[in-house]
Write a structure and sequence with these properties.
Strand content: 5-15%
Strand order of the largest sheet: 9-8-10-14-15-16
Shape: elongated
Radius of gyration: 34 Å
Oligomer: single chain
Number of strands: 16
Structural class: alpha/beta
Largest sheet: 6 strands, mixed
Length: 964
């Protein structure tokens, strides 16, 4: 009742003042008009009714431009509108900006006006981003927002409004140029921002003006939308569904008439059918929160309604039409594709040139026409598809655009269908650069992996096109472009300060140094990473190329050409690099780059999907079993398969000879030596990375088995890029000091490895007497210089005086996953995980020391936990970190025979001064009885060598060499 009485009294005062205002044009009425404007403003501040602020704005508009106090009145009204918390979703924003223009003319502004003005201008930028306003530049907007943040000076609510706008613009940038790292950073920043704003607004039955910060709602919604987008970048559909459910719950908490609730429900109505198509659980159907996933017809109707709703701007309607078209393309019938193409054409008509999503619309439309070509063979559709995709590529401009590769691959396919094969190959090869660019911008291995998830398949498809054109050198380039991108990014971002300075970018190098000094263990901001990569790759920061579209001016985005690879092979004393490329339903192939001849290739009919699918499963079983009672794996269940596994491996090795190694060694046209064992570097592609190619075998004329390792010296490589890097760095002399890790006590996380402890002591005493010995002694006591913790191992890798060799005899674990976290790790003292990611980080950011040799005498240390073609393992991270040679295991290896093999290897390296690849070969030949055993071998190890188990393939073939 008191509030009602106050309202009545206020109305009476306003009425009396209105009588005094008089008709327009009477100067004596201006003060009363001014007073009434203030009264309406006061009522709005008290009651929060929109009609009061509208009346105040009407009175302000009626004031003469030169009315005394008008600028300050403008500031007061703008401050009130800003305080409502709903201004930036309201058509009154234009009024608020007009008020800001008027208030800016005040020669003596009120104390808070600069902060109010900064918040208003920031909000306008946020709306401009959301509306894709002509001329809007997101990066320029971020620079302006930095200035507004300085004016707001951290004071709420002004600084909150500026930060809200900044996050909205960053969200837009991530949508336009997807970066998993930046998406994660924006999500984290949004979460911190929402937490700082305090409690959310009350449920729908509360007073929306009390109990919470209105910006909190928008901050929470932005965060959840960003979480959904980040999950989509990772292809994490369950997480997308979970975040959509949170958005649904949030919408239910808002008042029924709240515009924000309507916007959320509209967005969710579009998101639900998309999630249903992806096979995810769908958050609440409709306001009830229940229901079942929609049928295809129901889902299509949702998109149709969204595209037909009245009042949409051209930009928004174009977006909805494209969503509808994508749903129609998903149905994949002739009729639905025709409908989709019609809707896409209309979307392109509506989409203005400045719309940042137009490039994507061109891509989708061109790809839809290409699908029609492949369905019907219509040449008109092929011309249209080609023109649209060329326009999309021109709009993308360079490898720096997030969709560069996504556009280039279908465009290359269009050129192939038109029989323009040279242009098709060059377009696809240039397109693959986009994968390298994207990975270089990411901060962590799991984010790099998410970005590179299609790189290997795009590279393999390009290589197949090249081989069908008999272009072997192009095929080699394509295959390497899709390999080991995480390792490549780590190698390329090492020594950046020196490289930038040498390239004439001293200022940029200084900013890099400052950023690292400010946060030594943290991440460099994505914008700074982008600027650095752009400077080194010949692409401007805004994404436009220095040269022609997509050409660039540096080798940063390209794998080495075949001449560089040949030069590296000669420096390493190798005869050829061989990519083993499995087929699907088609034949496989070996792409061979000889050290002194042009690249060539060999068709391998048996290296195809029908056999490959089987052997990968067999090797998984082999990794769980082996033949030995004692296995360097933490799981005791691995012993269960020790009877079956020999037969499995025998069959795989016989198939490996017939499928690849036999034809490869027998083909005289490949340029391999015939008078001595060939020295081969293998890069097995996709699932063929699991096969022990050096253990391939065939029956000799005398009926005995002959192994590939008898006829060739085998080394492996994660990519030609890293092979060339190893050759460029040059050799490191091997000394007698280093690090020996001997079966640390895992605290029950894994079984003990008694032979590993014996092996480690023998290796140290016989070959590296000055090495640090950590872990355990043969009797189980602690090592003389430590218990084998992760910190001890990492300290050694970071110590410039630590020595030149590391021998790690312990447990190794691989957990294949694309999720963040450890993918491959050593199990050390107390069950601690020492992950490949941590080792790589220390080596890349550390002293830049040179290490001659690392021997990972642990299970699966040569196996990638981030996909076969990413080749990201404990062994390859060491190679990327400047270790010259690495020996590691590709599966679970038996404890006792491994100790024998390791002693033999070090004997040939140190006593016979062999290169590591040759030393490993000699040790393996000893294991199968083709070489005499050294007399210096300790008695206990010699006894193990006499065991029949020592010659089993499982006992020696799991170890491989990479590097020099």
């Amino acid at each position: 009742m008191g509030e009602m009485a106050g309202t009545d009294e206020s109305a009476m005062v306003v009425g009396r003042v209105t009588q005094l205002v008089g008709p327009p044009g009477r100067g004596e009425g201006v003060p009363w008009l001014f007073a009434r404007c203030l009264l309406h403003a006061g009522r709005y501040e008290t009651l929060g009714r929109d009609e009061d602020i509208d009346r105040a704005l009407s009175d302000f508009q009626a004031l003469p431009p030169d009315a005394p106090g008008r600028a300050k009145l403008a500031a007061i009204l703008a401050e009130l509108m800003l305080g409502s918390g709903t201004l930036f979703g309201s058509p009154r924003l234009s009024w608020a900006l007009a008020l800001a223009d008027a208030a800016d003319g005040d020669p003596d502004p009120m104390r808070h006006w600069p902060m109010t003005c900064a918040a208003l201008r920031a909000g306008d930028l946020m709306v401009a981003a959301r509306e894709s306003r002509p001329g809007f530049d997101a990066r320029a907007a971020l620079h302006a927002l930095d200035e507004y943040a300085a004016l707001a000076d951290g004071a709420p609510p002004y600084a909150d409004a500026v930060e809200s706008a900044r996050l909205a613009v960053r969200h837009l940038l991530v949508q336009e140029n997807p970066s998993v790292s930046e998406a994660r950073r924006v999500t984290d920043d949004m979460r911190r921002f929402a937490d700082r704003l305090g409690a959310p607004a009350p449920p729908s039955d509360g007073d929306p003006r009390e109990g919470g910060n209105p910006l909190r709602d928008r901050g929470e919604i932005m965060r959840l939308m960003q979480e959904t987008h980040t999950s989509a970048l990772r292809s994490d559909v369950p997480a997308m569904a979970r975040h959509a459910g949170q958005l649904h719950d949030f919408a239910l908490r808002l008042p029924p008439g709240d515009p924000l609730r309507g916007q959320l429900n509209q967005m969710l109505e579009t998101l639900r059918p998309l999630l249903a198509m992806l096979g995810a659980d769908v958050p609440g159907q409709g306001e009830s929160g229940g229901g079942t996933p929609p049928s295809e017809a129901d889902a299509l109707r949702v998109f149709q309604r969204a595209a037909a709703q009245p009042g949409l701007s051209d930009v928004d309607r174009a977006f909805q039409l494209v969503q509808l078209a994508l749903a129609e393309l998903n149905l994949d019938t002739a009729h639905s594709v025709d409908d989709a193409i019609g809707h896409l054409a209309k979307a392109l008509e509506l989409s203005p040139a400045h719309d940042p999503r137009r490039t994507y619309y061109l891509l989708v439309t061109g790809t839809a026409h290409l699908g029609r070509v492949e369905r019907s063979g219509d040449p008109r559709s092929l011309r249209t598809a080609t023109e649209l995709l060329e326009e999309a590529r021109d709009a993308a401009a360079s490898t720096a655009h997030a969709m560069w590769t996504t556009i280039s691959m279908p465009l290359a396919q269009a050129y192939r269908l038109a029989n323009r094969r040279d242009l098709s190959r060059s377009t696809a090869l240039r397109g693959l650069r986009g994968h390298a660019w994207g990975v270089l911008l990411e901060s962590t291995p799991d984010e790099m992996q998410a970005t590179a998830r299609h790189a290997a398949e795009d590279a393999l498809e390009t290589a197949r096109w090249c081989l069908s054109d008999d272009a072997a050198e192009d095929a080699a380039t394509a295959l390497d472009a899709g390999r080991g991108l995480i390792l490549y990014a780590a190698a390329e971002t090492r020594d950046l300060e020196a490289r930038l300075t040498a390239a004439g970018h001293a200022g940029l190098a200084g900013r890099w140094r400052t950023a690292r000094a400010a946060d030594p263990g943290g991440e460099v901001p994505v914008d700074l990473r982008r600027e650095m990569v752009a400077a080194l790759s010949g692409v401007r920061e805004d994404g436009t190329p220095v040269a022609g579209p997509g050409e660039g001016t540096s080798q940063l985005l390209d794998p080495p050409d075949t001449e560089e690879t040949r030069s590296a092979l000669r420096a390493l004393g190798a005869d050829a690099l061989v990519y083993l490329m499995p087929g699907d339903e088609r034949d496989g192939a070996a792409v061979v780059v000889p050290a002194r001849a042009p690249a060539t290739w060999l068709r391998l009919p048996q290296l195809n999907k029908s056999r490959a699918a089987a052997f990968d499963g067999f090797l998984t079983e082999a990794a769980r079993g082996m033949t030995a009672r004692d296995v360097r794996d933490r799981d005791s269940a691995v012993r269960d398969a020790r009877i079956r596994v020999p037969r499995v491996l025998d069959g795989i090795c016989e198939w490996a000879w017939d499928a690849a190694i036999g034809p490869l060694l027998a083909d005289g046209g490949l340029g391999l030596p015939q008078d001595r064992p060939a020295r081969l570097v293998l890069i097995p592609v996709r699932e063929s990375a699991r096969v022990p190619w050096h253990a391939a075998r065939t029956r000799g004329a005398d009926g005995t088995w002959r192994y590939a390792v008898e006829d060739a010296v085998f080394s492996y490589a994660p990519s030609a890029r890293l092979l060339c890097e190893a050759a460029r760095l040059g050799p490191v002399p091997l000394t007698d000091d280093g690090l020996i890790v001997a079966d640390p006590d895992t605290g029950g996380a894994a079984r003990e490895l008694s032979a590993a402890r014996l092996e480690a002591l023998a290796v140290r005493d016989c070959f590296y007497p000055r090495a640090r010995h950590v872990g355990r002694l043969p009797d189980g006591g602690p090592g003389p210089e430590g218990r084998g913790t992760g910190a001890e191992v990492l300290r050694w890798f970071a110590d410039p005086e630590g020595g030149t060799v590391a021998h790690l005899a312990c447990h190794g674990i691989v957990e294949e996953s694309t999720a963040p976290g450890d993918s491959s790790y050593l199990l050390l003292h107390g069950g601690e995980h020492l992950a490949a990611e941590r080792v790589l980080d220390v080596l890349v950011r550390g002293s830049g020391r040179d290490i001659a040799l690392a021997v990972l005498a642990a299970c699966s240390t040569g196996r990638s936990g981030r996909g076969h073609d990413e080749a990201f393992s404990l062994s390859t991270t060491l190679l990327a970190g400047r270790v010259r040679s690495v020996v590691s295991a590709t599966w679970s290896v038996p404890d006792a025979p491994t100790s024998v093999l390791m002693f033999l290897f070090h004997h040939f390296v140190k006593e016979r001064e062999m290169m590591p690849a040759d030393a490993l070969r000699e040790a393996q030949l000893c294991m199968i009885g083709r070489r005499a055993n050294p007399a210096a071998m300790p008695r206990r190890l010699r006894e193990q060598l006499r065991s029949p188990q020592a010659s089993d393939i499982a006992s020696w073939a799991g170890f491989v060499h990479i590097g020099r």
